[in-house]
Structures are given as structure tokens and as C-alpha cells.
Amino acid sequence: MTHADPVPPDDSYLRSLVAATADAVAAAEPLSSPHTGADAATRAEVTAAVERSSPDLVALSQDLHAHPEEGFAEHRSVRALADLLNRHGHEATVGVGGLDTALRVSTKEQDGPHIAVLAEYDALPGLGHACGHNIICTTAAGGFLGAATVAERLGGRVSLIGTPAEEGGGGKEILARAGVFDDVDAVIMLHPFSHDIALHPFLGRRQLEMIFHGVGAHASAQPFMGRNALDAAVAAYQGVSALRQQLPQSDRVHGVFTDGGARPNVIPARAALLFYLRSQNPETLRDLAARMTAIAEGAAAMTGCGVELVWDAQPAYLPIRFNTALAGRWSVNQALTGRKPLPPGIVPESLTGSTDLGNLSYRMPALHPMLAVSGPTVALHTKEFAAAAGSSTGDTAVRDGALGLALTAADYLADAELRKAVHDEFEAAGGALDVPSFFA
């Protein structure tokens, strides 16, 4: 029996990327905004409300970090969020849109603009809050509490919507299809990261399971009577590997074998692969799906097997559609904390993933800035990022992010010209998309 440790990857490219990014960050100018937003008195009132809630927000962030729960099972987490809101005078409803761990709370219903702040609180298996959802949850809570103090006076409405299972479960899409966002005009949230960024692309994502069906046979006595499903799966995997050379730089495909047979002396009658497909535009994601379908069907044909394609066991994720009008106000508001949110294109756009917030961004204007909690080389979904999300840097991010969301929500409610710019930009980008039918 032999054992060999893997060869560690060379980090020279990462180091050069970090160095180049540092130079670009130093030279970058943050986004500005031509809109004034809320007046000084309103902003002072919002700021004071966030400051009053900050100790509770940080305590909740630490509590969630210490007790991570996976998607659709965030029962303790959503109850802790509801308890915080109740202590601050807002009774939340837990269990909306058909999801036990979804939450919604709103200020007084009245005519006028309605903006929702979105909370996530699911964690990753084995890694805890390695995506920093403890920070997402508590900044959203603070954003709601701050804006709620002025919403009625401004003639509008603000809600906090807790959206379960962002990590692959598509909670926002499930809630959207259940009508939870039907009366909402715009949504805002943030995401912890390695840099402060006002606008950063997140890729659309689809899931594809390829299940190949062959004919089992004795691999020694009668191999000619078999049709090898594992051969078909291997051919499909190799086809995908060849496809990668022709993909746009923004596209990603990654997959694993989930079934390859049980014993070497039996030709496998079944084999399966699970792939994630990612792309920066809905149309290119749809094209990538068509190419993956062709590969699967070709692999089946060349091996005499059948193939079953199972798309999106959980809802597909669309990429994020930017809204620079909202992002400009976010940048102005974050400057008050000493942060300098970067414009797009400064931090390499390949350093990204996917989120179900993208689905909402094709239904209504959306804001999804990044908030620095870690060093520049720390990646999401690692134990190092989980540690950062529970550190004092993470606690600072809770306070800064809550203020930024609260002020941005107040700006949206107070400034009619800002709202017009936000919605004009959304319509110019194509307006609302029929998300459920896009990949049909």
C-alpha cells in the first residue's frame, strides 16, 4: 500500500493577481451619485437608530456564527432574528411563502414606494458561516430597523424578508413564485467579501445531472452483451473538458461522478454525473446548457446507452443585473464609515460565485454590494473566511453594513428623482424577465 500527498498548487498567479489588484484598488475612485437622497435630519435619525441597535446586531451575528444551520433547516437562526426584531418593537411573521424558515416584517402599509432589505442565514455543511451569512442577516436587520424609524414619515414602506437556503436551495426564487415579493418595488442586501465593492458580478448557475442507462453484463464472460454506462459518463466528462477551451472567460463548468457502478467485474448499467454551469449572462447560460445537452446525447449515442437529463433539482440562479443608481447611493453612504467601495472591474471579476439574488434582480431593481471582512487572498467558502466572519473585523462589518443599508433604503424612500433613476435604469436594461419560463 502506498500513499502520496498531493502536490500543492503553485501560488505565483495568485500572488501576481493580488499585487496587480492592490495597485488598481489604490488608484480607483469610488462611485458617486448625482442624487441627494434623504435630508440631513432624516439621515441623522436613521444613523441614531442603527447605533442603538448595533450591540444587539453584533451579538446576533456572533450567535448565528456559533450555531450554524444549513438551508431550509435554519429554525434556530430565524427565531433568533425574529426575537431581535421583537425586542425592537417589530413583530415578524415566521413561515411565509411556503417555507418554514422564511420571515417577513414590514412597517405600516401605505401608498408609496416599498423597498425590502433581504436577510440570509443558512450555513455551509462542514464549514459553518464560510460565506458570512451571519453578517448578511444582521446587516439586513440593522438596515430595516434604521429605515423603519423614518419610513412612515417619508410616505413609504420598508420590509425585512428572511430568505432561506441561498446556498443551492434557491429560497428567493421559491418565495418569489409564492408571491412574497409581488408588492415590493426594489430589494437591497450585501455580501461579505475580501474587498469593498459597489458592483461585482455574480454568475448565473444551473445544475445538470446526467444519468446514463446501459445494459449490465459479466465483464469477463460476456462483455459483448453489455452497454457500459460508465463509458458513456466518462465520454461526457471528457467532452465537457474539451468544451472548456471554447467557453467565454466568464463561464464555468464543474462536475463530479455520483455513480460509476458497484463492482469491476460487472459492466455498469447505470452511471451519473452532476454538473454546475455558470455564466455571466442569462442568454449565454442558456447557450451553455444547450451545448451540455449535445455532449450528453453524443456520449450516449457513441456507447449505445440511453441518457436522462435532470435540470435544476433546485431553482436555477440568474446572474445579477446591476443598478448603478442604487450602487452610487450605497457608495456615498459607506464613505461615512471610512470605506471606499470600488467600482466594477477593479477586483478581477473571475473571483465570484452565484446567488439567488440574481433572480430577483431580473424582476425588480436590486443592490448587492460586497463588504470587506477578510484579507485579499481569502476566498469565500473556506475555513479562513468562516473565521473572518466571526472575527472583530466581521463585527465592524455588521455595524458599517447596517448603516449603509439603512441609509440607502431611506434615500430610496425620500428621493423621487433617485427612484426614477433606479427604475429607468432597470427598464433600460430590459425590464422584468419572466424568470420561471426563461430556461423552459
UniProtKB/TrEMBL annotation:
GO terms for molecular function: dipeptidase activity; para-aminobenzoyl-glutamate hydrolase activity. CDD domains: M20_ACY1L2-like. Residues 207-298 form the Peptidase M20 dimerisation domain. One of its GO terms (biological process) is folic acid catabolic process. Keywords: Hydrolase. GO terms for cellular component: cytoplasm. It holds the Pfam family Peptidase_M20. It comes from the Bacteria. Belongs to the peptidase M20A family. NCBIfam families: amidohydrolases (TIGR01891). This is Peptidase M20 domain-containing protein 2. It comes from Amycolatopsis australiensis.
